[in-house]
Design goal:
Order of helices and strands: HEEEEEEEE
Number of strands: 8
Shape: globular
Largest sheet: 5 strands, mixed, barrel
Strand order of the largest sheet: 4-5-6-8-7
Strand content: 35-45%
Helix content: under 10%
Length: 135
Amino acid sequence: MTETPDAWPAIQRDTKSAPFFDAAARDELVIKRCTGCGQALPPEALVCTTCAGTALDWIPAEGSGTLLTWTTVHRAPNRAYTDLVPYTVGIVELSEGPWLYARVDTARPSPDLPLRAEFVHPGDGESYPVFTAAE
């Protein structure tokens, strides 16, 4: 489990994201898969990008991937993040193929850096993945 300051703003689920956050609470990463063609899709997908199917299932993901791009935030986007800067967010290409936008907790981000998901369980709000350098 990744340690995180309690100051991170709480994440709240909705009905569409509930399976993702239920899995994160169990330290599991899930993504979607098209039941029509089998294409793996990011958790927020509503339609298959390959066949335009709308029947999507949740499936377990390995929780590993590589860093495609990132940015380190030095100026807080709003007051809730003022005490948290600097922090890094990036796009992770999961082993299954989909891209996931997530917080990246590594001192030296670099292209194609192998990453693995760890899970944050804040006292307030939903559990969520943070990607760290794979060993």
